[in-house]
Amino acid sequence: MDDEQRRQLTELGYFRIDGFAEPAVGQRMLERVVELVRRSHSGGNVGEALVLPEQQAGFRGADRDAPEAGVSKVFRLSRDPVFRDFLERPDARAVAADALGVAVAQNFLSQFIFKNPGAWGQPWHQDSFYFPFTPARPVVGLWLAVTEATLENGCLHVLPGSHRQRVHEHVPDARPGANYGYVEIVDHDMEASVPVLMSPGDLLVFDSHLMHRSTDNASGGIRAAMVFHFARPGTVDRTMELRGYTVNDWVEVPA
């Protein structure tokens, strides 16, 4: 991180690095996760990966015959070689560790987001709501654009400076067919939010308290992204204890 990136993370709760990775990096991730989804669909072994479908009744994306057309997210990918390669990049390791203020970061959550055509966006939330950790902070996310992220296909929107807020009350997403685990913040003014338009290979680094959402995909193509979340070594994860389930998988990123 340079001084300007550090300032933005402190003041705004996020910063971006355009062209962080070659678009081919994301394309390899997309091809690999499609392979895993199809293998899962046919009953094959996908290791630690966890495939979650879109919950809208009868949902199918543009290619109705492809198993991935009905998928929302795939979790627990950090141990797969394609995704591990990204975690072991010196620049990715450096960004995560520097944002946390440590020498070595721990990746605890990895998720590939499909956002197929017609998929709903995720309401306003703070990622820290999902992370009952001790200590609660710092936690950062690295959001890699695999495809273009536009207003039409449901890019992220962020509320600058909202990372200074406490974790607000989150209520269940009231939409029938909302994806599993979707919740939303309803007690805060989001008028000052801004969209984050990205090209393949761009990287968004953000604080886990930052309020953000995505909108519906009204385009004819997917809006894919790969997200890694990091915390400091020694962080105690109480997700299973308090929630009775977890999609976390703690992986130390080598120095």
Can you tell me about this structure?
There is one protein chain. By secondary structure, the chain is an alpha+beta fold. The protein has one domain (3-252): q2cbj1_9rhob like domain (Jelly Rolls), CATH 2.60.120. The chain has helices at 3-11, 23-41, 81-87, 90-100, 239-243, and strands at 14-17, 50-53, 71-75, 106-113, 133-134, 139-145, 156-158, 170-172, 183-185, 194-196, 203-207, 212-214, 225-231, 236-237, 251-252. The strands form four sheets. Strands 1, 2, 3, 4, 6, 11, 13 and 15 form an eight-stranded antiparallel β-sheet that branches.
Task: Give the N-terminus to C-terminus distance in angstroms.
Answer: 16 Å
* CATH topology descriptor: Jelly Rolls
Approximate shape: globular
Provide the low-confidence segments as ranges: none
Total domains, how many? Answer: 1
How are helices and strands ordered from N to C? HEHEEHHEEEEEEEEEEEHE
Name the CATH superfamily classification: q2cbj1_9rhob like domain
CATH architecture, by name, is Sandwich
Q: What helical percentage do the residues reach?
A: 10-25%
Number of helical regions: 5
Strand content: 15-25%
Give the biggest beta sheet.
8 strands, antiparallel
Briefly note the structural class of the backbone: alpha+beta
Report mean pLDDT, rounded to a whole number.
95
